[in-house]
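Service request form, structural biology core

Requester: graduate student, group of Dr. S.
Request type: structure prediction, single chain
Budget code: on file
Notes: please return the result as structure tokens.

Sequence provided:
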Amino acid sequence: MKLEGINAVITGANQGLGLEMAEAFVREGATVFICARDSVKLAEAAERLGKIRGQQFVKTRCLDVSSDVEVAAFTAEAIKTLGRIHVLVNNAGVYGPKGPTEEVDADLWRKAVEINLMGVFYVCRHFIPHMKASGGGKIINLSGGGATAPLPRISAYAASKAAVVRLSETLAEELREFHIDVNAIAPGALNTRMLDEVLAAGPEKVGQAFYSKALKQKESGGAPLDKGAALAVYLASSESDGITGKLVSAVWDPWPFDSERKTDISSSDIYTLRRIVPQERGKKWS
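Core staff response, request fulfilled:
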């Protein structure tokens, strides 16, 4: 098993991709501490995970990642319960308000950023001292299509997910000397509750083009959840040691990477966000 003896914290793990990742981690030998806001779904998730290898490999706590105070208490409990945390998976996230940016509710926009970005920041800042003192670890942050392309009418999600990638890249450099790898995952277009939200909002909120794309995705089945979960397992395992500061696509990128590709990735700006200059498009502007 790839994660034998590993203790992992996974946020937003009571449904969808978060639960799929938790299942994959447990199957690969990890003990998981999962958290989410919905206590009923969290209990259901714990029962489902416990059937895989035993309830002793599953710990739970209700948590709102947008609360620094709650995250601090959760961190202390997780460390006390498990002894050492080897892996963090920051999965909790929301789309936030949908519609033209000038028309959406500002409080809802801010709340989406608090969950998607500040939630990642809070979890990282509280667990990083423990990981440093423990000699290393892995941090995996969930990004998405909003990080690499504009998402008109879903601006809070797009802005916060792009920020998560840059935060991941920045933390990777800060933590490199402490043997803590930090990466982001683009799991693909998933058929989860977030897709249902888009369809419920309708074309008048999300735009006809995005709504049509969502309908097509719903019909096709979308990207398989197990691809994103398998990538999370890979990035949590020793197989990916040394890969840090990257945004890896579960669907489009050729992982797991062989030694030659790992060297290329580690020594270049492959799988990073960056500015394109005119010369790279054949323009010789003075």
